[in-house]
Amino acid sequence: MSHHLWHRPRTAEADGTGHATHKVSFSDSSKRDSSRPSASRTNSHTSSPRLLSPRGDKDRDRPRSQQLWSDNRAWQRVNRQSEALWQESPSLLSPSSPQPRPFLIYHDSFLNLLGPSPSLSLLISDPRAPYFHEAGVFHPATNTLFITSNQIPDTSPDAVTTSNKTIVITKIEFFSPTDFTRDKVRCPERNYMANGGSNFRDGIVLCAQGSLREPSGLIYMEAKRPHKTVTLVNNYHGRPFNSPNDVVVHSDESVWFTDPIYGYEQGFRPKPQLPQHVYRFDPSTGDIRVVADGFGRPNGICFSPNEETCYITDTDVIHGDGTKVHSRAATVYAYSVYWTDDQPYLTNRRVFAYADTGAPDGIKCDVYGNVYAGCGDGINVWNSGGMLVGKILIEGGCANFCFGRNGEMWCCGEHKLWRVKLGDETKGGLLGI
Predict the structure, then answer these.
(1) How many CB atoms lie within 10 A of CB 166?
(2) Which CA distances in Å does 126 have to 87, 149, 413?
(3) What's the whole-model pTM score?
């Protein structure tokens, strides 16, 4: 039996350890060419190196739940099965200390992912609106991060079809980890309530949730200004989608996406005409087909680095009107990906993990096959076997996030954008950088 289930350490919500200064600019031009992330790493599945316990042999006889405050390392063990890591701790800390404690360790393998100097810092705080909600797409060629907002009140005449709400796409161009420009993406066409996104070819693909008048579907947006958009697909053989939520691109350039009914529940989409499916769309042939069903609210989706497993989250615990039904799913499901007649399909559905706080929304894999999901308490991390190995605690939780270069992550916290620095080799499984 895993003792940490019964002796879980008390944790405090993370707090920003530093406010990065940044420039606000209305220029978003770039001189670099963009390209789709390489799929060369897709089929290379490396194992995360095992790390020996940092405790010495002298600690082996201590009781399991005995708290150790014997040194001032960056992290300290709470018991043999679970540990808490505190940043910048020049002196000894106690469990009731108000200091930030963002990294919670359930298994030693998480230490290797964190690296020698992990950190959590508040990059942007904007009380005006929840600009940092979904997508989280890092475009390596332009060193740019794209993020979609949560719903923002809109009094313009056109907004009547979206129940007087709008969604803003924010573009952040980085010159260094803390030196950047921030701007709104001004598309020639409306984004139609954009939500999740992924790298695709030279730009990004976004889930357009649609409106009472405009169809929902997938749109391709160029990464460079003026960010022209093209609709990829907006119906399933003539029947309208519900409100596509999140998307991932396979190495064969097929686009897989979830389609819950959140838009209808939030008043900006018509009554559903399709079940809450997961779809695969092939832009080269126009083929669109259902690959998974049986969800309460399908949400996040990603592939393992070797693309032999597909992970899909079900956030049925939270409905579109804000209602929470705790007896419903807050679950990550895993599927095996098999091929027949040169076509992939999903089989062997099984429960991979259940989020203990909130619901697992956005989901990603690192190059080692570990699975990360944005939950009510931050980022939860499981190994490929479904064991919870660690958490990155973020104040207010995290709906979505993405990997960057050399162990960098950006985490969306509605009014706040957080930067996480892990070990240099901890990278996104399909980003190819």
Answers:
(1) 20
(2) 24, 12, 11
(3) 0.80
H or E element in which residue 110 lies: helix 109-114
What is the tens place of the pLDDT at every residue in 315-347?
A: 999 998 888 999 999 999 999 999 999 999 999
Sequence-distant (≥ 6) Cβ neighbours of residue 229 within 8 angstroms: 187, 188, 189, 191, 219, 220, 221, 222
Render the burial of 61-75: b for 16+ CB within 10 Å, e for the rest: eeeeeeeeeeeeeeb
Backbone φ/ψ region at 275: left (φ over 0), alpha (ψ -120 to 50), beta: beta
Tokens of 176: 């260094």
- DSSP of 181-240: EEEE---SS--SSEEEEEEETTEEEEEE---SSSPPEEEEEESSTT--EEEEE--BTTBP
Beta bridge partners of 85: 75, 103
Cα 426 to Cα 16, 65, 105, 353, 392: the distances in Å are 22, 30, 16, 21, 14
Q: Looking at residue 136, what DSSP letter applies?
A: E
